[in-house]
């Protein structure tokens, strides 16, 4: 085991539902509306907000930071997650010749500094490596994490969209706090590829992006999505006529890895649908009824 390994890091704390800011640039909110959205989330018990440096063509963090600057003291009431490691070709980053991944210490440090400036904060509560870099130097990245933590610029670190072996390589050198993965009734891979098994084994609560299939769950022209809505509606009828969205979140929350789902909506009702799932406890048969519609088969 590497000398970089940390075994006594304090546990990551996030709100049970995390508000995702991925599409904030598309919401066309002015500063006041962005601030109101943050405040509404807080009223619902959501104090954690998910970002990435690339969101909105490298603009979303600045939009969120403007809202924080309009309300002094708000930063102390929230937790900020951001991700780095993807280089997009963009007018905002003219030095990026092609789309690529970069987990080098130089890029990670520069990305953190950019995110701190854009978000108008002195720290990130959680930093994630957005995609697995085939050229990752695990020892160098672990050392970078240690330095950023020692400087107080990052409190926790983790990864996103990594395979179990990729996560294990880095986790052996620096204790990771979470793994952010895609999971929904329309994307079941983490249930079978070892990702959620690994999270339980490491006592690492996963974060879940695209819990509603990126909106595909509500596509009227998608036959599989229509089957899923029917199944979620049927189970929801036994749980106080809960909405399709609420039942999709409840299905995720039932998993013993204790995931943190990330919303993707600027609508307060979208936040309410997610929070409502916290009051629902599905039976194993309820869960498998939804899984069966998702997998389009019975268990073997």
Structure write-up:
This protein has 300 residues and is of the alpha/beta class. It has a domain of 160 residues: NADP-dependent oxidoreductase domain (TIM Barrel, Alpha-Beta Barrel). 40% of the residues lie in helices and 11% in strands. It contains 12 helices and 10 strands. It has an 8-stranded parallel beta sheet with strand order 1-2-3-6-7-8-9-10, covered by helices on one side. Strand 7, helix 6 and strand 8 form a beta-alpha-beta unit. It is globular. The chain starts with 17 loop residues before the first strand and ends in a 5-residue tail after the last helix. 43% of the residues are buried.
What's the SSE blueprint?
Elements: E1 18-20, H1 31-43, E2 48-50, H2 55-58, H3 60-69, E3 79-84, E4 86-87, E5 100-101, H4 105-119, E6 126-129, H5 138-150, E7 157-160, H6 164-171, E8 179-182, H7 189-192, H8 195-201, E9 207-209, H9 223-237, H10 244-253, E10 260-261, H11 268-276, H12 284-295
Parallel strand pairs: 1-2, 2-3, 3-6, 6-7, 7-8, 8-9, 9-10
Antiparallel strand pairs: 4-5
Helix pairs in contact: 1-3, 3-4, 9-10, 9-12, 10-11
């Amino acid at each position: 085991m590497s000398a970089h390994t940390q075994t006594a890091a304090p546990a990551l704390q996030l709100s049970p539902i995390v508000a995702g800011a991925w599409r904030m640039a598309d919401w066309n909110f002015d500063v006041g509306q962005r601030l109101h959205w943050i405040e509404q989330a807080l009223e619902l018990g959501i104090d954690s907000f998910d970002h990435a440096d690339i969101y909105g063509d490298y603009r979303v963090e600045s939009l969120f930071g403007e809202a924080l600057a309009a309300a002094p003291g708000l930063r102390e009431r929230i937790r900020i997650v951001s991700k780095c490691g993807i280089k997009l070709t963009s007018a905002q980053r003219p030095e990026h010749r092609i789309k690529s991944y970069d987990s080098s210490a130089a890029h990670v440090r520069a990305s953190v500094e950019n995110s701190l400036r854009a978000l108008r904060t002195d720290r990130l509560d959680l930093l994630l490596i957005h995609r697995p870099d085939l050229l990752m130097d695990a020892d160098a990245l672990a050392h970078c994490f240690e330095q950023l933590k020692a400087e107080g610029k990052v409190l926790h670190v983790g990864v996103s969209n990594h395979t179990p072996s990729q996560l294990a390589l880095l986790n052996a050198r620096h204790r990771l706090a979470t793994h952010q993965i895609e999971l929904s009734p329309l994307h079941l891979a983490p249930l079978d590829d070892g990702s959620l098994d690994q999270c339980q084994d490491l006592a690492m609560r996963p974060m879940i992006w695209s819990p509603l299939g990126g909106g595909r769950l509500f596509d009227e022209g998608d036959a599989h999505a229509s089957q899923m809505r029917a199944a979620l509606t049927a189970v929801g009828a036994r749980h106080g006529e809960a909405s399709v969205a609420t039942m999709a979140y409840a299905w995720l929350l039932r998993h013993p890895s204790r995931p943190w789902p990330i919303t993707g909506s600027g609508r307060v009702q979208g936040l309410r649908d997610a929070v409502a799932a916290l009051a629902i406890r599905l039976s194993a048969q309820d869960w498998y009824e939804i899984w069966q519609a998702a997998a389009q088969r019975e268990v073997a």
